[in-house]
Design goal:
Helix content: 55-70%
Shape: elongated
Order of helices and strands: HHHHHEEH
Low-confidence stretches: 50-63
Number of strands: 2
Oligomer: single chain
């Protein structure tokens, strides 16, 4: 049975949200990516192209990467909210450690421990968020997976490696 591609240029924001909620992401992965791209373009103020079909932002990525991207995209995890929560908890616990740690004991090491304890999961969740959204901030430059996949994955690997190294170091220093 042949089904034609919907003309997403005519859709309203509410209709896009409805499509995102009800679309079969496995069966219509290409359409799902088109809808995400169209929402992103409208949020950036780019007017819809009438009658033209958008290319999937993942089409330029190698087939080997599609498995990782698909697995992370299908996560039902609100990474944006999780990032904000981890950051807020990190700030609160760092402040509490700074205020309530006795001065003679030396609060510097303990406060640094708390900061890095929250920084590591923050960076790991940020990596997941970046893979889901297709863009990552590297030194105040936004790198998009569709435009520069090599730099994008280098940023992901760098952040994830740093985060895992810091967690390993914290655990190692705590128990040795």
């Amino acid at each position: 049975m042949f089904t034609s591609e919907p003309n997403y240029s005519q859709y309203t924001h509410e209709e896009f949200l409805d499509v995102l909620e009800h679309i079969d992401r496995d069966k219509y992965h290409h359409r799902y990516q088109i809808v995400l791209k169209e929402i992103d373009n409208r949020n950036k103020g780019i007017s819809p192209k009438t009658g033209s079909k958008c290319k999937s932002p993942i089409s330029s990525v190698k087939n080997d990467d599609n498995v990782v991207i698909k697995a992370i995209t299908n996560l039902r995890l609100n990474t944006s909210r999780l990032l904000k929560t981890i950051f807020l908890l990190g700030c609160i616990f760092t402040f509490l450690a700074f205020v309530f740690t006795p001065q003679p004991e030396g609060f510097g090491d303990f406060v640094a421990f708390i900061v890095f304890l929250f920084l590591s999961p923050f960076l790991l969740v940020y990596c997941i968020h970046a893979v889901k959204t297709g863009e990552i901030e590297i030194k105040a430059i936004t790198v998009k997976r569709s435009e520069s996949p090599g730099c994008f994955w280098l940023g992901i690997v760098t952040y994830a490696t740093f985060s895992i190294f810091v967690l390993f170091t914290l655990i190692w220093n705590t128990y040795t």
